[in-house]
Design a protein that fits this description.
Blueprint: H1 4-39, E1 49-51, E2 53-69, E3 72-76, E4 83-88, E5 94-95, E6 100-104, H2 107-200, H3 206-297, E7 299-301, E8 306-307, E9 309-310, E10 331-332, E11 337-342, E12 347-354, H4 355-358, E13 366-371, E14 374-386, E15 391-392, E16 401-409, E17 422-439, E18 443-446, E19 449-456, E20 459-464, E21 466-470, E22 474-479, E23 486-488, E24 497-499, H5 503-506, H6 512-515, H7 517-531, H8 533-538, H9 540-546, E25 555-556, E26 559-560, H10 561-565
Parallel strand pairs: 20-24
Antiparallel strand pairs: 1-23, 2-12, 2-17, 3-11, 4-6, 4-10, 5-8, 6-7, 9-11, 12-16, 13-14, 13-17, 14-16, 15-16, 17-22, 18-19, 19-20, 21-22, 25-26
Helix pairs in contact: 2-3
């Protein structure tokens, strides 16, 4: 095997050692240059030196969040059943009022409409038949009642006719028979008496006498029968005929009542049947109307202009999984969200403001909003409302509390802005006029003392100051500095500090950190929002890669950002 590669590796060793020596020399030169720059002190032209000056500045609270539409229309499946999408507008499209958004498969509903129409026609025919039957039954009732009424009237007339006619005539006839029999009996009795005398005198024969006697007997029997007929009639025949006729009248009256009741029941049944057919027709018409409405709902039209956003793209709408999306062939449940149409012509920004600063926000305050999608375009706006309840910082920062502030945006001028776009906002809460101020990064705190670094003896000395109002860029100095005094805008290296404050001034006192917390809150908020920490809050995976919640707090100006976030005064 050739040994040439081993020889080459041996020759490369001196080259590597030489490179290490050169790198070490370069590092030493750079360290010497940095030390020389530190020893140069504070020159008048240095960019990290700032003069305290009087003037005004705006107190602005920075915030970050996302764009939202001030109004949006939710589109649901209004059908009573699940439906399969056969046509849907593309997500992200801008639609106009009346445009078709979604079409569902309507085969089953078409069949249902046809069946409902047939049932409605049948119900209409049945109602017409029931109406005609009711008319027939009512006329039949009228006829039957009239017939029964006539029978009762005839029975009453027969009773009255018998009472005032037949009875009187029969009584006269019986009376006449009795009187005739009495007269005939009296005549024959006289004749018999005369025949008896004549027979005794032998003027007539025995046969003639017997004939007269027989005639008298017959006359006497006829008289008895006549009298018996009157007695039988008055005691029996009259009562019998009267009761019979009265019974006929009573039966006719009862039959009239029965006919009325029977015919009324028949009419009621016919009326009930007609009412049932009427209700059935109404139900069939309601079903037909609902089926037609369902058929209309198979096509959804845009009720207003807006941007199409599928419900599967929104976390708070629907049951859609991460790997699911709305499209043709997808089955949508009844009353399930399909999409929303945010009105992109009326936009707002929902930004988060820490609860320590939320008390300074009020509706109507002017704000400037810059979207990440259009960083070169600042939008004007005004605070519209402040959230009622604070939101937590989530698992990564459970002790943090932020309020959502809605900022209405003006003058969009057809910018291509969409909901959920990231944005930053500066909310102007106050304007400071004619005040001595310095950049906020020039002010430091240690314990109970707030101070700045001023040039002294080629380095810097800690100068005690008292603070007033502050913005995210400037802070008011109410004591310890004068106009024209120069301050350092960074934390000096230890070798640059020529003089420090006495230890007794920097010892922490109870509540001292809370009294001076406002400046740190502004400063920390400014750093976080301007450096993109607001975006980091919504991107948990990125932070987890950098260390997550266990990372140590970031240092700024001799103190940690964590300490400034716990402050509560602006």
């Amino acid at each position: 095997m050739p040994r040439t590669p081993i020889a080459k590796r041996g020759q490369a060793l001196p080259i590597v050692v030489g490179a290490i020596i050169l790198l070490g020399g370069a590092a030493a030169i750079l360290w010497w240059l940095a030390a020389a720059a530190d020893r140069a002190g504070a020159g008048p032209g240095r960019s990290d030196i700032h003069e305290a000056r009087r003037g005004g500045f705006d107190i602005v609270i920075p915030a970050s969040g996302e764009l939202v539409a001030q109004s949006q229309i939710e589109i649901k499946n209004r059908l009573n059943t699940d439906a399969i999408i056969t046509e849907i507008v593309d997500e992200g499209a801008v639609v106009r009022r009346g445009d078709v958004l979604v079409r569902f498969n309507d085969d089953a509903i078409r069949t249902e409409v046809q069946e409902a129409e047939d049932e409605a026609i049948n119900a209409q025919n049945e109602l017409e038949s029931a109406t005609a039957e009711l008319e027939i039954v009512r006329k039949t009732r009228e006829s039957e009642v009239e017939k029964a009424q006539l029978a009762m009237e005839i029975a009453a007339l027969e009773l009255e006719s018998w009472e005032h006619g037949a009875v009187v005539a029969q009584r006269e006839e019986l009376t006449l028979a009795v009187e005739t029999a009495e007269l005939d009996h009296a005549r024959l009795l006289e004749r018999f008496d005369a025949s008896k005398r004549l027979y005794e005198q032998e003027f007539i024969s025995l046969d003639e006498f017997k004939q007269d006697e027989i005639a008298l007997v017959e006359a006497r029997a006829t008289l008895r029968l006549a009298r018996l007929a009157i007695e039988v009639f008055e005691q029996y025949e009259y009562q019998k005929q009267r009761k019979q006729l009265e019974s006929d009248l009573d039966q006719a009256s009862k039959e009239l009542a029965r006919v009325i009741s029977r015919q009324d029941a028949t009419v009621r049944r016919a009326e009930s049947d007609m009412d049932s057919k009427q209700r059935q027709l109404e139900n069939r018409r309601v079903r037909l109307t609902e089926a037609r409405e369902q058929f209309v709902l198979c096509t959804i039209y845009a009720p207003a202009d807006g941007l199409v956003v599928y419900a599967s793209s929104l976390e708070d709408l629907g049951h859609w999984d991460d790997d699911e999306t709305i499209g043709v062939g997808v089955e949508v449940r009844s009353n399930e969200y399909i999409m929303v149409l945010p009105d992109i012509t009326r936009m707002a920004a929902d930004v988060k403001v820490n609860e320590a600063l939320s008390g300074r926000i009020a509706p109507g305050q002017v704000a400037t909003v810059i979207c990440d999608a259009a960083p070169d375009r600042a939008l004007s706006g005004a605070v519209q409302r402040i959230g009622v309840l604070a939101e937590t910082g989530g698992r990564r920062d459970p002790y943090r509390r932020d309020y959502t502030v809605r900022v209405r945006l003006d003058g969009l001028n057809n910018l291509d802005l969409k909901p959920s776009m990231r944005c930053r906002a500066d909310i102007k809460v106050e304007t400071v006029v004619d005040a001595l101020h310095v950049p906020i990064q020039a002010v430091h705190r240690e314990g109970a003392a707030t101070f700045v670094y001023v040039p002294e003896s080629g380095g810097f000395a800690q100068q005690l100051v008292t603070l007033g109002r502050a913005s995210e860029m400037y802070i008011e100095i109410t004591g310890g500095l004068s106009a024209g005094d120069r301050v350092l805008m960074r934390e000096p290296a230890a070798r640059e500090i020529m003089r420090r404050l006495p230890p007794e001034l920097v010892e922490a006192e109870d509540g001292a950190e809370e009294d001076e917390a406002g400046r740190d809150e502004f400063d920390e908020r400014y750093d976080r929002d301007r450096d993109g920490d607001g975006d980091e809050r919504s991107g948990g995976d990125e932070r987890d890669e950098r260390g997550g919640e266990n990372d140590p707090p970031r240092e700024r100006g001799g103190e940690s950002v964590e300490s400034s976030e716990s402050s509560g005064q602006g």
